[in-house]
Design a protein that fits this description.
This protein has 299 residues and is mostly helical. The protein has ten helices and four strands. The protein has one domain. 56% of the residues lie in helices and 7% in strands. α6 packs antiparallel against α7 and α7 runs antiparallel to α8. It starts with 5 loop residues before the first helix and ends in a 9-residue tail after the last helix. The relative contact order is 0.12.
Amino acid sequence: MSFPYLQDLVRAATGLNLPLPLPTFGLCVLGATAVSIYVARLEVRRRYEIGQIGMAVQRIRKQGQRLEKSVPPQDLVIDFGLMALLAGIVGARLFSILEVPREFLADPWGLIFARQGFNFFGGLVFGVAGGIAYFRHHRMPILPSCDAFAPAMMLGYALGRVGCQLAGDGDWGVPADIALKPHWLPMGLWAQTYDNNILGVMIASPGVYPTPIYEIAMGLLAFAILWWLRKLPTRPGWLFSVYLLLSGIERSAIELIRVNPQMSLLGLHVTQAQIIAAMLIVLGIVGIAVCSRPVKTVS
């Protein structure tokens, strides 16, 4: 069962029919952003206190003049999070459109303002690019700052997928093979029909693989790994490289059973996500190799 709007969720939980036409996907994204900002602020503060990230520069206007003042970097995390959210939404929509160029040419405005169709990798690319620009603008060290935000980014991704599951926005898998289902696994974790999904798509019983649930689990596991690794004495950029590697592995795995438009590349039928995931894996491995030499901790 899907719950595209808050009123659907409230009705299912309480039986009350309240007029709450708020999209559950959007609410989950906002909630994921808030939690990610909180976690990122904790890590940025920690790295600031041990000297890995110095004071940031904030530009202000005072009496008609543009001035600069030094501020602790954690004071800018909220602004950064909101900027990254907006950049990510634009990137996610753009990459989603690039997956279906024919549909876009047929109805460009309808696809641009559709309630579904957000590509994670588009959000990642635009969010990271916007983040790097933000770090440079405020004179924050790029690689240590990327390391500080890596766990929070993974956590935000996992929590954001809760919205995909609730709304039934099409991020589900291919038809589930019931013959392969382990006997101990609940049916809801193997196949779902996503009744009342926001797309209005009818899915035949027994259903499709609920890939958002799998991505939530893998995302939370990856976050736990990054959170555990974050205090290791490594060179700047190492943890962010691990984040890229884990993101690529997670998406490569889920693409094996997920519905996505395919394209032909060198005689192979692949999805846009598989191509980008492969690039992330390569970048992650190279980054880990380059930054693998331990460094002394700051006392």
